[in-house]
Amino acid sequence: MGKGLRESEARYRSVFESTSDAVLIFDHKGIIVEANPAACRIHGYPYGKLIGLSGKQIVHPDYHEHFDDHVRRSGGQFRAQSVGLRRDGTPIHVEIQGFVLDYRGWSHLLVVVREITEGVKVGEFLERQVQTRTRELTTLLEVVRAASRSLELREVLKQVAHGLAGALGVGHCAIYLVDEDRELLIPMGGTAPGGLGLGDPAGFRGRPLDPAHHPFLQQIFEERRPLAFHNAGIGPRTDKEAVGLLGLESILGVPFVVGGRVVAVAMIATSVLPAFTEEQVKLAQDIADTLALAIENARLYGQVQEAAAEEERARLARELHDSVIQSLYSVTLFAEAARRLAAAGDAGKAVGHLTELGEATRQALKDMRLLVYELRPAALEREGLVEALRQRLDTVERRAGVEASFSAKMERKLPHEVEDVLYRIAQEALNNALKHAHADSVAVQIVLRGRRVELEIADDGRGFDPAERVGGLGLTNMRERAQGLGGALSVSSAPGQGTKVRAVVPLG
Question: By the 8 A CB rule, do 83 and 63 touch?
Fold first, then answer.
């Protein structure tokens, strides 16, 4: 062998042995005939054990077919990703590059192997993170959708409690609403019948919490961030009886903050110890941050409803005074006059007063029936708008001798707030027809047309000029109710020609 050839082979051997990538040479049967130190290190074999092995012994079975394809190649080169095996069977993610070359006078396959296991692990980790975040965002979206379907405070809080419990995979979640006037937390319900460490183990029965007596709650209010603690059964911050009965170990308090104020607190608990990872706490806070405004809106809506109810009670009190009490006072006057005339022997005039007494009594009965029905339209809550209107006509109009017709074309039940508004509009219009227009007949029609509902009440009463009495007969209230839902109300009437009230309300 010439000097130049020996030097060339020495350089080749130096590069072959010093490279950090594994280099393997296979014969036409796929047997390893040469390997560098990096190949021995990566696969965990000493040189003497690695030489003579079949390539399939260092390749994962899932990739044997690909290995056979590479060995059968008669020319060119290839690059691919594969999975190798260490001597102990541990898989190795690798990137391979192959060449066909002449080695010792015969065609062989040279393969350069670069380990990419760490990169694959990083990729898998990132993929898991993406999957986790996608799942969290999906959960958040579902909770937001569920809680946003209603403005009823208890229904919103119920959805929030169930959403939080489901998102964190726990069985106990209670929502406490902040009563700023009394500086207390009021239990509003939750996902489990028992209390949550700070509540009543027998259930939510109006046992408010005073943050001044609970350091745990004090810290949540001061820092306005989620706070978790474990070993709840021995901690000084909990109701030991409740914790013991429920077998709770870990508790997470999550504040709902609006404008820097804590408006509600979720108490989430589990029997697992330890619990509540950083990811869970962050997800709970994301849900709380997103839904805090929904809770506040529902609370304000409840206050508006309560104020409206108070106003309605005041109106009914005025109606009672202006109509029923006055009618009853007239009854007493007619009865007393008839008694005196009868005692004086003037039977003719006495009969006249008795006739007037009967009319006053009938009017008082009519007014009282109206007020009683307004106070308790139970069918609206129990059976919906259509049945409530039908029962109203049967209970009031027809019993008062008014001919009443009703038509409804409804394929589905309407949202609660829409039904309530339409019922109140119909009630006001029917009251006007009965009390002011002295109608002999009324016709009520309600129709669902696509994404809107239309309500019409027509009577054959005295009628009036709408231009002269825009604010009278409760028309302003009816318009404001319809406009509150993004709808509109129109009134057509003329003296002696009856009245038609028409309300159109969109559905989302």
Answer: yes
Q: How far is CA 266 from CA 201, 235, 251, 306, in A?
A: 16, 19, 10, 25
Taking only the tens place, the pLDDT of each residue in 398-440 is 877 889 999 999 878 888 888 888 988 998 899 888 888 888 9
Please write down the long-range contacts of 101-107, taking CB distance under 8 Å and 24 or more positions apart: 103/25, 103/33, 103/34, 106/27, 106/28, 107/28, 107/74
For 385-508, CATH gives 3.30.565.10
* pLDDT greater than 50 at residue 239: no
Look at residue 301 in the predicted model and tell me its pLDDT: 61
Peptide bond into 274 cis (omega under 30): yes
Please name the residue that has the structure tokens 């009031």: 396
Domain with CATH 3.30.565.10 in the chain: 385-508
* 441 contact partners, CB below 8 Å, separation of at least 6: 402, 403, 404, 405, 459, 460
Which segments of the chain belong to CATH 3.30.450.40? Answer: 134-287
Class of domain 134-287: alpha beta
* 488-506 average pLDDT score: 93
What pLDDT, on the 0 to 100 scale, is given for residue 57?
Answer: 93
CA distance 48 to 364: 114
pTM metric for this prediction: 0.37
DSSP secondary structure code for residue 84 in this structure: E
Q: Rounded to an integer, what distance in angstroms lies between the CA atom of residue 506 and that of residue 508?
A: 6
Q: Which two tokens stand for residue 390?
A: 């039908």
Q: For the chain, give percent helix, strand, coil, nearest 5.
A: 50, 25, 25
Task: Encode pLDDT of 65-103 as tens digits.
Answer: 888 888 876 566 788 888 899 999 989 888 888 888 888
Distance CA 100, CA 490 (A): 89
The CATH label, of 3.30.450.20, 3.90.1300.10, 3.40.50.970, 3.40.630.10, for the domain at 13-115 is 3.30.450.20
